[in-house]
Amino acid sequence: MLKKILLGIGMLVLIVAGYVGYLMLTTKNHSPAAVAEFKDGDFLIQVNYCQPFKKNRLVFGDETEGALVPFGKKWRTGANDATEISFSQDVQMDGRLLKAGRYSLYTIPYDSTWTVVFNSKLGYWGAKFNGDPFEESMDVMRVPATVRNDLPEIEQFTISLTPAEGAVNMHFYWATTRASLHIQRVQ
């Protein structure tokens, strides 16, 4: 009898492990990896992220409305692995210096503004089931981003880097929202 119980538990563990493995292998098919890049001579900004789809869901809104990305909550700014950004040279945002290097990037969206956070810990994946997946003690900088909520519908989350006079604008597009952050190159 004990053998049958142990065999049953073993089979259940194998089935669950197989299912979790399958989900991990196929999840990037649903939110494919993407790279946004800006290059000007030896100055390079590169953003590695995954692109979830809207799929008729409420993307940004109140948690009580069932929003996929609730206002005031940390978001990994994409899907799967946390978004990572690298700068080949020092940059300035909101009048503050951010040293060259690689950072995890997460955001805290609100209706009229976003907070963009650069975190020194790399390798975050997904959202933890208990607790905070992003350790605030590892935050290097938090800067505000401007928001527009009146754009044509964007089905797939997209990050773009566009040149501006002596700077780069980083845009986050999804649903009818665009959040923008001005990044100044330090010469």
Tertiary shape: globular
Structural class: alpha+beta
Q: What Rg do the Cα atoms give?
A: 19 Å
Q: Supply the number of structural domains.
A: 2
* Main sheet specs: 11 strands, antiparallel
How many runs of DSSP E, i.e. beta strands? 13
Average pLDDT works out at 88
- By DSSP (H or I, 4+ residues per run), the number of helices equals 1
Strand content: over 45%
What would you note in describing this structure?
The protein is an alpha+beta fold and 187 residues long. It folds into two domains: 1-29; 31-185, no CATH class. 16% of the residues lie in helices and 46% in strands. It contains one helix and 13 strands; from the N terminus they run H-E-E-E-E-E-E-E-E-E-E-E-E-E. It has one helix at residues 2-30; strands at residues 33-40, 43-50, 60-61, 69-70, 83-87, 91-93, 96-98, 101-109, 113-119, 139-148, 154-164, 167-175, 177-185. The strands form two sheets. Strands 1, 2, 5, 6, 7, 8, 9, 10, 11, 12 and 13 form an eleven-stranded antiparallel sheet that branches. A hairpin with a 2-residue loop joins strand 1 and strand 2. It starts with a helix and ends with a strand.
